[in-house]
Amino acid sequence: MNSWILAARPKTLSASVVPVLVGTALAHSVHWTIFFCALFGALLIQIGTNLINDALDFKRGADTAERLGPLRVTQAGLLSANAVLYGAYFCFFLAALCGIPLVVRAGWPLLAIGLASIIAAYAYTGGPYPLAYHGLGEFFVLLFFGFIAVGGSYYVQRLQLDWEALVAGFAVGCLAVALLAINNLRDIENDRASNKKTLTVRWGERFGRIEIALCVVMAFISAVLLTWVPLIALPLAIVLLRFVRSAKGAELNRCLALAGALQWAFGILFVIGCFV
Q1: Closest to 214 (Cα-Cα) out of 255, 251, 250, 178
Q2: CB–CB of 152/191 below 8 Å?
Q3: 8 A C-beta contact, residue 207 and residue 200
Q4: If exposure means fewest CB atoms within 10 Å of the residue's CB, which of 71, 127, 187, 211 is most exposed?
Q5: How many structural domains are present in the chain?
C-alpha cells in the first residue's frame, strides 16, 4: 500500500484539488454532489497521470538511479511497470464513473472534457508522440490543470462559462506550470540523456528559471483582476523565486515543496476572496 501511495505522489495533488476549489468558489452556488464528483474525478485523473508517468518514464529511460527527484516506484523496483499501468487504467475507470453525474447535469461539454482529460493524461508520457518528451508539457498543464479544470468546475455548477473562470483558470494553471518547470529544471541532465526534449532542455537553465518567475508573477497579476486576497501569499512567492534563482540539482526539491505550498495558499486565499 505504501508503494501505491508513493506512486500517486500525494504532494503534487494540489494541482488537481486547487482548480476544482477555485472554479466552484467562483461559481458561488454549490451543488455539493456535483462538487465532490468533480473533485474526486480530477484527483483520479491526476493520480492516473502520475502512474502512467512513473511507469513509462522508467520504460523510456528517463528515470534512472541518477535521478535527483523523489522516489519513483517503478525505477526503485517497488512495483512493476505493468502493475503501475493497470493501476492507472483503474483510476481512469473510477474517474469516468465520477463523471457520470457531471454529464447528466451539464451534458456533452462535460463528456468532452472528461474524455479529453483521460486521453491527454495518457498522451502526456504515452503513445507515439508523448507530449512531455516534445516540449508540450507546459501547454498540457496550463490547459488541463488551469483552463479546463477551473472552467469545467465552474461550468458544471453554473451551466455557463464567464470570463472570470478563464482568468482564474489561467492564474491557477500558471502555478501548475511553475511546478512542472521546477521539475524540468532539476531533471535537465537526465532529460537530455534520455532525449526528453522539455523546454528547459531545448533552451537551457536560464530559460527555465525565467519561465518559473514569469509563471508565478502572471498568476498573481491575473488573480488581482478578480480578488486581491491571494496577494497575501506574495511573501511565499518571493521566497520561492529567491531560491529558484540559484538552486541546482537536488536543491530544487526544496523549491518544489515551496511551490506546492504556494499553490495551496494561493488557492485557499482565492476561495476566501470569492466570498469577501
Answers
A1: 178
A2: no
A3: yes
A4: 127
A5: 1
**CA-wise closest residue to 52 among 110, 19, 8, 96:** 8
pLDDT in tens, the chain (276 residues): 688 888 888 888 999 999 999 999 999 889 999 999 999 999 999 999 999 988 887 777 665 555 556 667 888 778 888 899 999 999 999 999 999 999 999 999 999 999 999 999 889 888 888 888 888 999 999 999 999 999 999 999 999 999 999 999 999 999 999 999 999 999 898 888 888 899 999 999 999 999 999 999 999 999 999 999 999 999 999 999 999 998 888 888 899 999 999 999 999 999 999 988
What pTM did the predictor assign?
0.91
Q: What angle do CA 218, 219, 223 make, to 5 degrees?
A: 115
- Contact criterion met (CB below 8 Å) for 151 and 23: yes
Residue 110: Cβ within 10 Å count: 22
What domain range is 142 assigned to? 2-273
Residue 165 is part of a domain; what is its CATH number?
1.10.600
